[in-house]
Amino acid sequence: MRDRTAWTWHIAAGVVILVLLGLHMAIMHLDQTLGLFGVAGAEPVDWESVVARAGSAFFTVTYVLLLGAALYHGLYGLRNILLELNPGATLRRAVNVGLTALGLGLFVFGTWAALAAPGAAAVGG
Amino acid sequence: MESRARPNRLGVLGWVGGGRWGFERYLYTLHRLTGLGLVAYFVMHIFVTSARALGPESWEQAMDVVSGPLFAVGEYLVFAAFAFHAVNGIRLALIELGFAVGRPIEPVYPYATSVGRQRRLARAALMVAAVIALWGGLDFFVLA
Question: Any CB–CB contact under 8 A between B11 and chain A?
Answer without folding.
Answer: yes
